[in-house]
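Read as amino acids, tokens; as here:

___
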Amino acid sequence: MIRVLLVDDQPLIRSGFRALLDLEDDIEVVAEAANGQEGLELARQHLPDIALIDIQMPVLDGIETTRCIAANPALARVHVVILTNYGLDEYVFNALRAGAAGFLVKDIVPEDFLHAVRVAARGDALLAPSITRKLINQYVTQPPASTSTALQELTRREREAVVLVAQGLSNDKIADRMVISPLTAKTHINRAMTKLRARDRAQLVVLAYESGLVPRNS
């Protein structure tokens, strides 16, 4: 069962998403919050698999809420998906850097919304490489020194795996490309995430482009 927390200051938005989720046998909405502070408290209480969080809210916005969740080891398994009205913008980029697994535009069609929730629950990134490149090109002028330094700790195979993750390949396809088992591919990716302090695959993709490991025009 996929356990979902809804965090949005608009009751109609929350009720609309809840109505869709409640129809699914494999998804359960465990709580709702009207601002980020409430959402953070409910995340600690319920430990959901997915936290659907509006990017602009009173008290504590979506970026800060995401950052707080990502910084809390007790919430390591909570995958944050940002909800936005506007699509690609600096707020979305900052939320991804803060630890969000991806983002959804609120006018998404129901089928795509439900699919996205299931994808995020598996731990996969809701972020196509083309979207990542656009965000990086628009909002990054210089890679953080900490990321560039951490890259030096990666082995050759770990760097290769990160590049393939950034290209949007699944673990199975990465394994085929690297001629290794899926388990070994997953191990390389997990070790790279640990060394780069990436919360999930989405953040790993951002870091790969941000650091220059993957060229922005590739």
